Every structure is written in structure tokens, then in C-alpha cells.
């Protein structure tokens, strides 16, 4: 009796299930390769270390100080900062907020991959800055792409010649209005005043207000 009841109720269970939607019929005449079981063989590329990949960029300043080429690059960057009057050496005080600094190393290459020059850049640790203490506004006015296209159109229609230039140490030309203090960089500590710090007079890379300055 129980089995008969179960069999009689089975159609009701099946009829209560939702209908499975049928996939829509394709009406577009285009036939893809996959529909005809045509597949392109996968080509695996093997990456090898190219001889132009060396020299490697140092990860730590201690590594760079052991290489004469990187030492020269660091000296060029340091001398450029000094010649621009980027800072003044002042006694350290507990009231100062020291933002910190570090060296960043890059190998500049030609389009064919050969080494052009070794570039060392001294950057500030802007994440240590405090709002209202060593920076206020950080908004930087920039040029609109529409303006660039307008200038290019005028030059083309009037037959003007265009020149491109790269300003070396562009951020060093901005005058700071806030008091920003930075320690002496590794490898270039003044031996006569090792405990002094730099009071920045001009902007330096990775300061929050550097683009605005």
C-alpha cells in the first residue's frame, strides 16, 4: 500500500520541478572555428635570460656602494642636489618631524636594450609626512590633453618645428614653503656634522607637495 502511494505521488513531484530552459537557436550565419572543431596549437615561449638584462639594479644601498658605476651615479645625483641648493645642514632637534630618505636605482637603456647610463635618485619617504606640519596643499595643476592636441594642430597647420626636451631633476626647481627635515643620505654623511639633518629648501622626489611646488 505504501509503495503504491509513492508511485502515484511521483508524477506530482516531477511536474512540480521547474522546466529546464532550452538554449536559444542560433540565427547568426557566422560559424566560428571552435564550432568546426578547428583549434590553433598552443605555442609555448621559453623565457631565457638575455645578456642585456645585466647589470642588475641594486636592491639595497650597501650593494650599490660596492659598485663604482653606481657610486658615480649616486655622486652625480648628490652633487646636482647640492648645486641646486636643495637643503641646508642644521642641528637635529626632537621637535623636528624627520621624513626619511632612500636611494632608488635604475638602469636607463637605449631602444635596442643596451645600457645608456646608471641612474641613482635620492627620494624622500613622503609617507612619514604629517598634514599641517610639513605639508599642506598637494594639488598640482596639470595641462589638459586637449591643449596639447591644439598646440600640435597649430604647429602642423603652420609648419612649425617641434622640439622635445627632458628636464633633468625637474622636481628640484620648486621652492618649498613648509619646513621639511630629512636625514643625511647613506654614503654621503658629513663627517664633521654626522648628527645634523637637512632642512629642505626646495622640493625633492616623493614629497607630497613636490608636484605642486
UniProtKB/TrEMBL annotation:
SUPFAM superfamilies xrefs: DNA/RNA polymerases
InterPro entries: DNA/RNA_pol_sf, RVT_2
Organism: Vitis vinifera
Protein name: Reverse transcriptase Ty1/copia-type domain-containing protein
Domain Reverse transcriptase Ty1/copia-type: 86-212
Domain of life, per lineage: Eukaryota
Pfam families: RVT_2
